[in-house]
Amino acid sequence: MTIDDACVAGNGDREPDPSDSLRTFGAVVQALREHAGLSRAQFGELVRFSKHTVESVELGRRMPEESFVERAEEVFGNTGALRRAARFLSRGEPGFAAWFQRWARLERKAVNLCTYECRLVPGLLQSGEYAYAVFEGTIPLLTDEQLETQAIARMERQTMLYERPEVPFSFIVEEHVFRRRFGDRAKRRNLLDHVLKLAALRNVKLQIIPVEGPLHACLDGPVQLLETREGRRLAYSEGQQTGRLIADRKEVSLLQQRYDTLRSQALTPDDSRGLLERLRGAL
Q1: Are 227 and 112 in contact (CB under 8 A)?
Q2: Which of 10, 104, 227, 268 could form a disulfide with 99 if both were Cys (CB 3.0 to 4.6 A apart)?
Q3: What is the pLDDT of residue 207?
Q4: Mean pLDDT score of the chain, rounded to an integer?
Q5: pTM for this predicted structure
């Protein structure tokens, strides 16, 4: 799939697996098996794995063992296709929803990143307690292990802000997001302290849209924009159980114009910092 084709929607599963590479590999195995006129049970006998294992591999739910790949190659004529494809298999990225993984990979290589958020504190600015509270409130409920995995993944994602000081990160956030209550006062103070600390980094610019501000061009919802090393601009929009990577140049340009307009309407970084400090002092 090319970037131009990568306007993807989620599959409704908050868990990151199966990864795109596992799904693709499984689809190839299934196509080859069906072309050979074999049922899953018949193919399973030839590769010495159960039909349930064959099904799991074909659906991208299971990482194929090396012996599975080698025996499948023999069944399909030793073309080398499965061996080569198996080199690029990955299990996905623990802690990231399936629809977010592609964007997460692009983030780590972007030369700049812009984020507008109107629902919650952006993931790159969340404190650990806040991230945990966000995941704790999801439905269906997550296990303790899932909660920890997702919260850790979100906090590890923030290392980009420190590890890539040459990359500018711009955030525009609605004021009411920081006024929303969660936990006790100590946790809310810790959140604001964490945001203020990150916003003080020289490559991070945080601007707040005050609650008394007028209606603006980004009322359709949150959006993220980035630029690749090759100068390509992409956008990402997320909603209920779905995420969409936007590659169409006209659509990305429109979203960038909206973001730039919103930037001129938001408080300056200094005034935004002052607002957060006042909120912090009131707790």
Answers
A1: yes
A2: 10
A3: 98
A4: 88
A5: 0.69
Among candidate residues 172, 174, 156, 166, the one with its CA nearest the CA of residue 112: 166
Residue the block writes with tokens 């799904």:
23
d(CA 206, CA 32): 52
- 132 close to 153: Cβ distance less than 8 angstroms: no
User: Amino acid identity of 136?
Assistant: E
The string of pLDDT tens digits covering residues 109-156 is: 999 999 999 999 999 999 999 999 999 998 889 888 888 888 888 888
pLDDT at residue 53 in the model: 86
The burial class, CB within 10 Å (0-12 / 13-18 / 19+), for 259 is buried
Q: Which two tokens stand for residue 223?
A: 């959006």
The pLDDT value recorded for residue 18 is 53
Rounded CA gap, 124 and 131, in Å? 10
160 alpha-carbon distance from chain centroid:
14
- For residue 152, give both structure tokens: 């850790």
Q: How many residues does the chain have?
A: 283
CB 154 within 8 A of CB 104: no
pLDDT level of residue 12 (50, 70, 90 thresholds): very low
Beta strand residue intervals within the chain, DSSP E: 112-117, 169-174, 204-209, 223-227, 233-239, 242-246
Read off φ and ψ for residue 148, nearest 5 degrees: -65, -45
Cα separation of 222 and 122, whole Å? 10
- CB proximity list for 199: less than 8 A, separation 6 or greater: 125, 171, 205, 206, 269, 272, 273, 276
Between residues 1 and 221, the one the model is more confident about = 221
Token digits of residue 234? 């992409």
Structure confidence at residue 92 (pLDDT): 56
